[in-house]
Amino acid sequence: QRPGGRCEACEGDGILRYEMHFLPDVYVACESCHGKRYNAETLAVTFRGKSIADVLDLTVDEAAEFFQNHRRIHSRLQVLSD
Rounded to an integer, what distance in angstroms lies between the CA atom of residue 45 and that of residue 41? Predict the structure, then answer.
């Protein structure tokens, strides 16, 4: 297992590509990580009930609210939100 926490099945892409030779390639969500890009061990780590995948799925406004008690993060997100 490589360091970094990525899903090894999809190499952290969250999707798998299937070559269809004479047709356009088909892309499907990785069955191992369900498109979340990280391995189960990494996804088990949470902060205030959210995994890294959950945090990355937040909108800027949702992230600003989530990190409201972390001044440095919140101020940067607030700039993006305004």
Answer: 7
**pLDDT tens per residue across span 22-39:** 999 999 999 999 999 999
Helices (H) and strands (E) in the chain, counts: 4, 2
Task: Give residue for tokens 């990280």.
Answer: 38
Q: Quick one: which of 45, 16, 50 has its CA closest to 33?
A: 16
> pTM of the prediction?
0.78
The 10 Å Cβ neighbour count of residue 16 is 16
Helix (H, G, I), strand (E, B), or coil: what is residue 44? coil
Domain boundaries, the chain: 1-45, 46-82
40-59 pLDDT, tens per residue? 999 999 999 999 999 999 99
